[in-house]
């Protein structure tokens, strides 16, 4: 774990560093900072640490001024000889508040708390990423409005075999072979469809993975057999063949 110490007393820095090494040799004190100004400058230029030990009273101001100037995204353990700042400290990512002189058993408990919360935050971060991906999938089109004669009908994504363009007119072909005109370009459709399910085979075809019966290599190109049969040669170019193979493998 990479930590920083923000403290203006050299003896306090040395003592805390030694105690951390005794408790957990994997903890690395990567930097010690003595003032609000120095801390703001360092935090603005360097990657965030995993944890900071911060004295409340620094030479040029209280350390709370650091948090007003820098967006802190890492946990903080405050260290001070004064207990009147406890409530205020919890406004600034505070995990714990250690009164000086710091006792090693109290420091151990604070570090244990950090590790427990780290596990919690990692799970929370995973949940956020997972939720984001789910929401992204939910953002893809579920159905399309297409022309049927002079009327419009709705076609679900699950019913679509592929899209093709002929003379700048785009058609939706469903799994039964029915053809509908759709007022979108293939480029527009690519953005609205889940790329896990649909692949742009070439300039004319955007195909659903479920519509591909089989395929074969043909001098570097890939020839697709689609269902329903478009009565047309559908090939993926040599340049696009590696992308197709990666896509079809999932």
From TrEMBL:
Superkingdom of the source? Bacteria
> Any transmembrane segments, and where?
none
Single GO MF annotation: DNA binding
Classification via PROSITE patterns: HTH_LYTTR, RESPONSE_REGULATORY
Q: What keywords sit in the KW lines?
A: DNA-binding, Phosphoprotein
Enumerate the Pfam families for this protein: LytTR (PF04397), Response_reg (PF00072)
- Domain spans labelled HTH LytTR-type: 144-250
Per its record, how is this protein called by name?
A: LytTR family DNA-binding domain-containing protein
């Amino acid at each position: 774990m990479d930590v920083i110490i923000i403290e203006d007393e050299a003896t306090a820095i040395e003592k805390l560093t030694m105690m951390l090494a005794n408790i957990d040799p994997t903890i690395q004190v990567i930097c010690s900072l003595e003032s609000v100004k120095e801390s703001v400058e360092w935090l603005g230029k360097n990657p965030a640490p995993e944890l900071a030990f911060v004295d409340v009273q620094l030479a040029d101001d209280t350390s709370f001024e650091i948090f007003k100037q820098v967006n802190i995204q890492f946990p903080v353990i405050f260290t001070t000889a004064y207990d009147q700042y406890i409530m205020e400290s919890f406004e600034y990512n505070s995990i714990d508040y250690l009164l000086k002189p710091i006792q090693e058993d109290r420091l151990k408990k604070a570090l244990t708390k950090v590790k427990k919360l780290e596990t919690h935050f990692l799970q929370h971060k995973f949940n956020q990423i997972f939720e984001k991906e789910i929401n992204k999938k939910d953002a893809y089109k579920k159905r399309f409005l297409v022309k049927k004669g002079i009327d419009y009908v709705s076609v679900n994504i699950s019913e679509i075999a592929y899209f093709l363009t002929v003379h700048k007119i785009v058609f939706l072909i469903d799994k039964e072979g029915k053809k509908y005109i759709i007022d979108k370009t293939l480029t527009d459709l690519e953005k609205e469809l889940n790329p896990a399910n649909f692949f742009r085979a070439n300039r004319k075809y955007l195909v659903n993975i479920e519509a591909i019966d089989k395929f074969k290599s043909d001098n570097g190109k890939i020839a697709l057999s689609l269902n329903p049969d478009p009565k047309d040669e559908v090939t993926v170019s040599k340049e696009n063949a590696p992308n197709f193979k990666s896509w079809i493998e999932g």
